[in-house]
Amino acid sequence: MKIVYCLPQLYKPGGIERIISIKANYLAETCHYDVTIITAIQKGKAPYYKLLPQIRLIDLNLDYDSLLKLPLFTRIYKKRLLQKKHKEILSNILYQIKPDITISTFTHEASFLPDIKDGSKKILEFHFCRKHKQLMAKAFKFPLITRFAYYLKCWQEENVIIPKYDQFVVLTEEDKLSWSSKIKNVLNIPNILTFRTSPTINTTRNEAIAVGRLDAQKGFDILIPIWEKIHKKCPEWILNIYGQGEDETKLKKLIAEKELKDSIIIHQASKNIIEEYEKNSLLLMTSRYEGWGLVLTEAMQCGLPVIAFACKCGPRDIITNGEDGFCIDEGDENDFISKTVLLMKDDNKRIKMGYNAQKNVQRYSADKIMPLWINLFNKLIKQ
């Protein structure tokens, strides 16, 4: 079977890039599928995550990122021109490859991929949550005119783009329920675990970890003031933040203002993040919105109990509240602090919840999730 994945790039770390790389490797190695990954702009760089040599990489050299600096209406016009070029190049490639399945990760090609009549079934793999662009506009405090544009984009996605696909796949049951009244062919297939093996559990160190891009979505500007209050009750604990992004300077300034330089350390993103999870005893997540929350399953696989706000979407699906972590109502900072301090002070409870986390998260192993994808591929081909 021939499978094609389309996504913007593979040279930067990120949840989508990580998951697609793992799934592509699985399909190529375990199923012996012919797998191609087509990127819009790779900039001549190697993939951040390891790919098997038999996976074909094709880069279209279409720089969408350069459009972000342009004024709104100029950007819209230039993007349409670039998408026209994108569609033409991608069409030629798909007609040459003749894939059975072509998968969009809901980025640049999403709006026109179903219009390419190369014979392949088209899947839209949605790594976000419904109305994520509205949540993004609010979180990043975009200007009013930009917010309006994002609201229109949400309408277009729901009413024009998504219905054209043979299958629409979301990551959580929560998100599926949100979409089901609007989109009839919506299917929930969770993300797979990112580590091949589960490390030995060691939650005895007085260190907590938070992982993600340093931007408004991930809510580190929420976490730092929360940690200030936690620090007063558990001063021996350290918070390690791993990530990179546009808010790094602002977050470091906030840490300095709150005199937490010795208690909060921002580290660069790690290619071997499993080693960093192993050095910590607890994961904290204060995202404003997610599509899944990959750091939750990664930490749980390493035997860490997790504490997260119940943002859309992911935490409600992943966390068994009170058993392998705590899913906190959005905005309830007092409960977040209370549950974190509880686990910091109760070693036995923290260790037990860590064991539960490592056991429960196995429902997302490749052996359980990838057959769902394979069954979907076979079903679509038979239609």
Automatic annotation (TrEMBL):
Coiled-coil parts of chain: none
InterPro entries the record matches: Glyco_trans_1
Glycosyl transferase family domain sequence ranges: 195-359
SUPFAM superfamilies, A to Z: UDP-Glycosyltransferase/glycogen phosphorylase
Gene3D superfamilies named among the record's database cross-references: Glycogen Phosphorylase B
Entries under PANTHER family matching the protein: GLYCOSYLTRANSFERASE
GO terms, molecular function: glycosyltransferase activity
Name of the molecule in the record: Glycosyltransferase family 4 protein
Record keywords, A-Z: Transferase
Keyword Amino-acid biosynthesis: no
Transmembrane parts of this sequence: none
